[in-house]
């Protein structure tokens, strides 16, 4: 019997002439944070909507906990959609109790869990406020509590950090990691590559509806080797444009990520940099997820 909590097999979804998801297959195991990543329009949200049974695939199959997805599997999910959906005129406490009751909780259990999570997010004082009175970031916290309060087995977060400041983003990351450590299976969809590196155990990279890379994040990065340079410097950065057999990424006034191509030598690049700028940091590292994504998309386009 499979250990997979989620199984996509040959899933395709088309809207008119547009193929949003194109013959996609992947598995997700229990207690993992699985990152769906790619640019907007790549197929992430459509895949999520099929998993939640909001949409049905045109072909292929999706199973959750060994059962084909349907109305009965929805009860085991917690879904934070990219388009938030709270009732603006309803009070926070009333709304959360209503949503928990829809998920089968008793009123007493709902009250206990809501209080627990609102206190965790320093938000219990908002319980009597209408949602429309809250800022976007405050509403995001309430939506997150609504997603997790009924204690679902599988959680789906579509761009969960949208609208949050750095402090609240860190708080949310802590909670997501705690949920994973408690055995929850977590889907995390984003176009922000740095968030994937901070949170995900496994990834699926989407481009134009196709799955172009899938697997364990650490193994994927290790397979590329240490072929990128992080360079910090002071001085005129124009020398970067003269480097041969490299690709420059995340270039700024005093920093650059440099991908080595076609046998480029890191020591030669260091020597060239020292002729033009004062080098403050020079490190040979594994490529970032953004680098891997660019590589994978380039290979897919060329193929």
Secondary structure topology:
Layout: E1 4-15, E2 18-29, E3 33-37, H1 44-51, E4 59-64, E5 67-68, H2 71-74, E6 77-80, H3 92-102, H4 107-120, H5 136-148, E7 154-158, H6 166-181, E8 185-190, H7 193-199, E9 202-207, E10 210-216, H8 217-224, E11 228-235, E12 246-249, E13 255-260, H9 266-274, E14 277-285, H10 289-302
Distance between the termini: 35 Å
Largest sheet: 6 strands, mixed
Strand content: 25-35%
One letter per element, helices H and strands E, the order comes to EEEHEEHEHHHEHEHEEHEEEHEH
* Class computed from helices, strands and strand pairing: alpha/beta
Q: Judging from the principal axes of the Cα atoms, what is the shape?
A: globular
**Strand segment count:** 14
C-alpha Rg (nearest Å): 22 Å
Mean pLDDT: 90
Number of helices: 10
Spatial arrangement of strands, main beta sheet:
6-7-8-3-9-10
Low-pLDDT segments: none
What proportion of the residues is helical, as a percent range? Answer: 25-40%
Oligomer: single chain
Would you give an account of this structure?
This protein is of the alpha/beta class and 303 residues long. The protein contains ten helices and 14 strands. The chain has helices at 44-51, 71-74, 92-102, 107-120, 136-148, 166-181, 193-199, 217-224, 266-274, 289-302; strands at 4-15, 18-29, 33-37, 59-64, 67-68, 77-80, 154-158, 185-190, 202-207, 210-216, 228-235, 246-249, 255-260, 277-285. Strands 6-7-8-3-9-10 form a six-stranded mixed sheet, with helices on both faces. A four-stranded antiparallel sheet has the order 2-1-4-5, with helices on one face. Helix 3 (92-102) packs across helix 4. It is globular, with a radius of gyration of 22 Å. It starts with a strand and ends with a helix. The relative contact order is 0.14. The mean pLDDT is 90.
